[in-house]
Amino acid sequence: MTKKMMRLGLSMRGLGYHPAAWRHPDVPVNGASEIEHYHTVARHAERGKIDMIFFADGAGVRAKDTPKGSLARLGQYITDIEPTVLLASISAVTTHLGLVTTASTAYNEPYNLARRFAGLDLMSHGRAGWNIVASWSNEEAKNFGLEQVRDYGERYERAAECAEAVTGLWDSWEDGAFVLDKESGIFFDESRMHRLNFEGKHFKVRGPLNARPSEQGRPIVVQAGNSPAGRDIGAKLAEVIYTASNTIEDALTYYADMRERLAKFGRPPDALRVMPGFRTYIGRTREEAQEKFEMLQDLIDPVVGLSFLADTFGDLSGLPLDEPIPADFKPAGDREGISGWADRLIARSRQDGKTIRELYLEQAGQASSNYIGTAADIADIMEDWFHKEACDGFNLTVPHLPGGAADVSDLLVPELQRRGLFRTEYEGRTLRENLGLPPHRNRYTGADRVREASIA
Ligand SMILES: Cc1cc2nc3c(=O)[nH]c(=O)nc-3n(C[C@H](O)[C@H](O)[C@H](O)COP(=O)(O)O)c2cc1C
Questions:
Q1: Could you tell me one molecular function GO term of this UniProt entry (predicted)?
Q2: How far apart are alpha carbons 96 and 425 in whole angstroms?
Q3: Position 353 confidence tier, pLDDT thresholds 50, 70, 90
C-alpha cells in the first residue's frame, strides 16, 4: 500500500496574511493588483509541489474605517484582482498546481458559478476548485442591494441550494457524451445530456450547463465554515474542508465531527481532505524566524492595530496605548454574541497587565496561532497533527508574499520530503489525482439514463 501523503495548500489573498505585509521591504507594494506578482507566487508553489493555491475572497472592501484612518493604511486587504479571472491567467503559467478560489453563494447565481468554474477547470486541464462561502460581511451586502447580510438561516439555506444546483449542473454531460464524430455528423450523444430541472426556494435552474466536464470530471468542491449548517454542506458535498483550528485538540474534535457527518450522508471517510489554516514564519535558525515575525509586527501602524480590536471594543484611539484598558471601560463593539469575548479579553489584559499595544499586536499578528521556527520545528508540529489524524494536511497562510511562499518551497517542503511526508513529484495532472481523491462519478453514469428530446 502506498504511504498516505500530507496535502498542502498555499492560501493567499494579495500580499499575504500579515496586516503589515505590504510595508515589508521585499514585498512589491502594488503586487496585489499586478499579475506578475501572482505568477511569481504560483511558480514558487508549483516548484514546491504544493497541491493547490487557494484564494480567500470577498466582493467588496470589508474593513470598516474604525478608528478613522485605519482603512487607508490596511494596504493589501483593500484592492486586488477578482480571483477566477486571476486563476485563468495563473493556469497558463503552471501545469500541475491546483487552482482554488472562494466564490459566494449570496451574490452569484448557480449557473454563473457553475459555468465560470467549469471554464477554469477546462482551461487548466482539471485543476480548478470552488470554495463555497455563504458570506458574512455587511459591507459586501451593501454592494448587492442589501443593507445587511441575510439572516443566518437564510444564508445557509441559500448556500446549500446553490451548491446543489452548481454540482448538479456540473453533471450535465455524462461520461462519453461527446462523440465528436465528423463522419456521422453527431457531436454529442443526446441520451447522455441531462437537464437538472432544479427548483428550490431561492434558485430555479433548468440546465444543461453549456460547458463540458474536464479531465477531473468536475471542479473540486471546498468548504470553509464552522457552524453545524456549514459543516453539513461540507460533509454532503465537499472534497476539501478548510478549517480554522488553532490547536491540535480543536483539530481532532473537528475531524471526528466531520467523519460522523460524512457517514450521515453515506460518504466514505476517504472522500474528504481536512486542511486547517496554518501560519508559518520559517527561518534557517529559530532566531531568524523570530526576527521575520518581529519585523512584520514592528510595521503594524497603531491605527491599523486598533482596527483589529474595534469589532470587540469599539474605537480605542483616545486611550494611551502603553497602558492596560481602564478598569471602568465599557466595550462599544456592537457585534452580537461577542460581548463575552470582549469581557474576557479585558479581564485577561488586566490580569496580565497587558497594554492596549500588546493586545493589538496579539490580535493583528495572530500571535497565539503562529508557528515560528526552523523548518524542522514546524515540520515536527505538522507531523504530529498529521500522524494523530487531526488533519490530512494544511493550508499554509503565509504572512507575506512572495517571500513566504519561497520559504515554504525552499525550507519547509524539503524537510517534509526528507521525512517521507510529502511528495517529491506530482502524482497526476489533475487536482483530484494529486489530492488522492477517488474519480468523480457522474450522477447519471450507470443509472437509467433519461433521454432528453433536444437542446432548446
Ligand atoms: C478557514 C476559513 C476560511 C474562510 N474563507 C472565507 C473567504 O475567503 N471569504 C468569505 O467570505 N468567508 C470566508 N470564511 C467565512 C465562512 O465562509 C463563514 O461565513 C464564516 O465562517 C461564518 O460561518 P460559520 O458560522 O459556518 O463558520 C472562511 C471561514 C473559515 C473558517
A1: oxidoreductase activity, acting on paired donors, with incorporation or reduction of molecular oxygen
A2: 10
A3: confident
